[in-house]
Amino acid sequence: MRKTKIYGHRGSKGSFPENTLLSFEQAIKQGVDGLEIDVHLTKDGEVVVIHDEFLDRTTNGSGLIKEYDLKEIKKLSAGSKFTELELYEPHWQQETVPTLQEVFQLLAPYNIDLNIELKTYLVNYEEIEEKVLAIVNQFGNSRKVIYSSFHLPSLIKLKQLDASANIAWLLNQPDTHLKEYMDGLNFESLHINKDIVLSDRSHWTHLSSHIRVWTANSREEIQQLLEMSVNSIITDYPERALSLRNER
Ligand code: G3P
Ligand code: CA
Predict the structure, then answer these.
(1) Residue nearest to atom 10 of ligand 1 (CA)
(2) Do 95 and 79 touch, CB atoms closer than 8 A?
(3) Which pLDDT belongs to residue 173?
């Protein structure tokens, strides 16, 4: 029987500063099958790994990412805002906003999947799809890379640029025509909010091998998704999900 994969959401977000190399290293140490990361573009067109369009919540900077060059963003701390996390240590202050290239360099020795979410629904980043694909082609040939987005035009563009790209539509609400979309647009999978899946489990069973579910964190949610044999679980607590998966 196919084993449900466990993907670390923004690394190991529940315990370490999200979308940092530290958080990715920790998730890898825990044994994840994949990592989920978010990407934006800097003013000088570099692909950086950070969740929000703004710097304010996760760094000691302020303003829109697209208004700063990489060199300026690299001066910021991506760890100092996370003092409320139980494991916080002062050296976290040295974490910076990673580039996509740095993530690939970190992953090089490991055979794990990379899910790159393109955050393209609020800000228009010119040619972000081309830039992401170029980096993946440079580094990512030997691993499974999945591109996800809430923004369908980005996924369609990726598929036009590279017919072999694994694209996954991110969904926050149910849609009755999903199977038709999947087949018509040649999606590799759907990435679905756990509340949609868990509120109507029988509805999703026939698609379970094609869905990755986010962001399932409690033991009960994770158990239910494991019982459904979903393709993958995206979680802030990969250690918890891995231990529940591995004891089955
Ligand atoms: O990729 C799943 C999930 O990360 C989507 O939502 O806001 O956490 O990026 P968000
Ligand atoms: Ca994300």
Answers:
(1) 51
(2) yes
(3) 81
Q: Complex ipTM above 0.95?
A: yes
- Give residue 147 CA to ligand 1 midpoint distance, Å: 12
pTM score > 0.90 for this model? yes
Asked if residue 140 has pLDDT above 80, the reply is no
Our count of domains for the chain comes to 1
Instruction: Give the residue, out of 5, 36, 145, with the most ligand 1 atoms within 8 A of its beta carbon, to mutate for a pocket test.
Output: 36
101: domain CATH number is 3.20.20.190
Residue listed under structure tokens 């990673």: 98
In this predicted model, what pLDDT tens digit does every residue of 13-44 receive, in sequence order? 999 999 999 999 999 999 999 999 999 999 99
Say what the pLDDT of residue 25 is: 98
Cα(89) to ligand 1 centroid in Å equals 26
Angle, alpha carbons 103-104-108 (nearest 5°)? 120
Among the residues of the chain, which ranges form H helices? 21-30, 70-73, 100-107, 128-139, 152-161, 178-185, 194-198, 201-204, 219-227, 238-246
> How would residue 142 be classed by pLDDT, with cut points 50, 70 and 90?
confident
Task: State which residues form the domain around 40.
Answer: 5-246
Catalytic residues: 9, 51
What is the torsion angle, in degrees rounded to the nearest 10, for the CA atoms of residue 197, residue 207, residue 180 and residue 150?
Answer: 50
Given the structure tokens 């539509």, which residue do they identify? 169
